[in-house]
Fold:
Amino acid sequence: MKTTFTYTVLRYVHDVATGEFVNMGVALYAPEANYVSAICSPRYGRLTRMFLDVSGEHFRSLVRYIQARFEECSNKLNGELALAGRPRSIMEIAASILPPDDSSLQWSEPNGGITENPGATLEQLYVRLVDRYEQRANLPSREDDDIWKPFRKELEVKQVLSRLRSKRIIAKDYDHEFEHAWKNGVWHLYQPLSLDLVEADSILDKANRWLGRATNLQESDEKFRLFMLLGEPRNDRLKSAYVRALNILKKMPGDPKLVTEKEAPKFSEELAREMAKYPAT
Structure:
């Protein structure tokens, strides 16, 4: 069924006087479909190439906050927001998450149209307005956030994305915060991991770092299981290093589960089926 929608673009505005900006995300709201979501890019490489003095870690933290708040809003749209009355526009939602001020991240003027699939339309807008300008040809490797995208998309389709939350595991000598987690008796921790790097040594080093992390975190009083969501190398010459990295990751304690990008649909369906047994509280 066709429904109306509005959207706004998240922009990094480096200098208000010159008007220079870079599109960093898209948020879309289709009230009749009870749909609101956003896709924001945490990659700041293009910003640093253009503007030099961008604080990368602060930027990533802020973008992730915005993304998480939209996911919370999506969950509430069918609950307390529905009872209190739906928001009137995408700008009402966007401004509640990132109020208009003089900061570098700003919302564009809203636009809109008609769609039969709000989620697909959001993806198309993101590709057209953000992704195409990321200059991927100049990016020699993928980041962990790139690997999360296909999993995020499948989980959103299954309507369980909003049930994931961040969780910090604290052990005696080490702690680590996982951005995507769900508790079912024990914590299930979903960690995207890009092994699509430039050099074989980098792939092996990254796998070894996670082996060390998992070993240290195993001393935590909280019970958990790791799910490593893996991005494979696109370069065939790195396939053997990838296989060796998998062997290293399999040595992590706690019976970790390794899931590849290609398995994202099956993984998401199984997780949705499991979550359905335990209604959200």
In short: The chain has two domains: 3-139, 161-276.
